[in-house]
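Hey L., structure's done. Input below.
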Amino acid sequence: LNETAIETQDSFSKLGISFTSYKKGNHLGSIYFTDSPEYRSLTQATFIDLFKKGLIYEDKRINNWDPRLQTTVADSEIEYKDIESTFNYIKWKVKETGKEILIGTTRPELICTCGMVIFNPKDKRFKHLEGKTLITPIFGKEVPIKSHPLADPEKGTGIAMMCSAGDLSDIQFFREMKLKPVIAINKDGTMNENAGFLEGLKIREAREKIISELKKKGFMSKQEKIVHRTPISERSKAEIEFIEMPEFYLKQVDIKDKVKKISGKINFYPKKSKKILEDWIDSISTDWPISRRRYYATEIPLWYSEDDRNKLIAVPKSMKYFRPWKEEVPKDADVLKNGKIVGTVKDFKNKVWKGEEKVLDTWMDSSISELFILNYKRDDRFFKKTYPVTLRPQGKEIVRTWLYYTLLRGYLETGKACFEDTWIHQHILDAKGRKMSKSLGNVIDPHKLLNDYGAEAIRLWAATEGDLSRQDLSCSEERIRSELKTINKIINVSRFVFLFKKPNKKPKLTHLDKLFVDYIEDMVLETDKSFENYDFYHPALKLRRFLWEVFASHYIEVIKSRAYNQENKFSKEESDSAKYSLHFILERFLALIYPIIPQVSTVIAAEKKIDLLKIEFPKSTKINSNLKLIDELMAFNSEVWKKKKDSGTSLRSEIKGIKIPKNLKDFEKDLVNTHKLI
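Output:
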């Protein structure tokens, strides 16, 4: 295991995240690695099936390019950032009239790739230019000027130059207008021969040089500082460029409506989170580029005939891990020509085969995690029995990648939705409410929190701080530390209960005991419904309040003398009622809070020979107590304690002049004994 895997495993074990084994295996619950040969073999097997079905194809087109990582990236791997830029107003000449017009741009280095100039059809200022020709400054190239709704009359001068690959709208425009793109940027981020005198310069250098030339030759009218919404690589944070290169694509545009329909069969928690997915699916306009130019990733399992690359492709059959860059082509591999099988490699004895060197996008691996876990293509009987999986919990920021790609791949493999439920959660922010990032230096080390406070305090804090499915939470060590008090309270209350042996048979409960037993029984139904909806926030708040304010502060204080019964003021049945109720309420409490803090509740329950992992979740029972009496009882207790405190007497001292309210008469014996009322 590498250092990261060891740290992750250490965190998982401290958090109590359970695997059937922390060693790799072939059974449900085994730990697995997405870069293992076993996992990669499944990724490749699904690629092979999709390739043979014609759902994966190779094409040369303009793609998002990360100049720092030197690889293509998908739209879903792009984020946007507002960056200061310069809007340059440049003089262009109308060929037919010799008049000048101004065009504003932030990318003057791309003038050499301009294919058309456009204005909005509703913009009357430029109707006289329809069908005319413009001469590009410095480069002297003739380009047509036409009306098109993509032009924004409010942006710049209202006229826009459309470059081959300035941004996504440019690329879509060139496809729509069937214009041949001219690419001026190399994959290493330098200008090529199409950029003329800018060739060899880096993009920013080229921008500075052409601005200097435009000024020198009188083409620059004016400049303005603006903030420009710029596409950024999610991984490297480099500004995205658009480069024409051959890549492999997985078809998604043609089936995105089917994926959207399949997603309708999944329960989303909260419901509104489904819109994140639907909005992303609606925005998809190109197929998914799945090939990358990296070293460490799952290899694309294809070989090509060196003298006939575009016609003969060898595709292996067996489900094993292939490394085409270093392995010979399997002799039984199918040979495809124009998408159809025309034989096997051994039928083409005189051909020399070369393996594909590109690798797959890591999301091609991650998007089949549930298929791998359920032994897809390895144990058909088990897979059919267990698919689809119950739940996909995940962060909101990777809905467009992990969730969407998993739904897409699951649908292509099975024709079904791969999850029954999806729970989307928000972010844990730093103490100042900022998203954690390496650049800000505000990443909170989970190992430190685990070592300082333990998993249960962190978990209880996360559950009670806010509803993580609906809002971001700011991480506060002080508030996590305070939850240690709650954990200790649970332990101390349990120790008190364990002082008494639980009666073998349920005795007749006193009115007071039945009231508090019914109180926690009433919490069962509400808690169960919340957990069914993956709502941990509201149960956590209510259970914590019950522990501190109801159970420990009032119930135990009122009945502890009856449970001890050292002065024999109560009958054995009355004392047994208190003992039984203490154990019952504790057991119910542990069962209800177990999904939130499983470690401490498991340890305490084990003392009572109860396995919370195996027992059935409590079922709600009909109650007939007036639960409002608990609030009245607590108010009465607080009033008595306050009077004693105000008078400077001990809480164990006798007190005169206190009248028990009529509604609390059924509890008179306990109250008189507890407060020493005379």
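The longest helix spans residues 537-564. The chain has a mean pLDDT of 91.

-- N.
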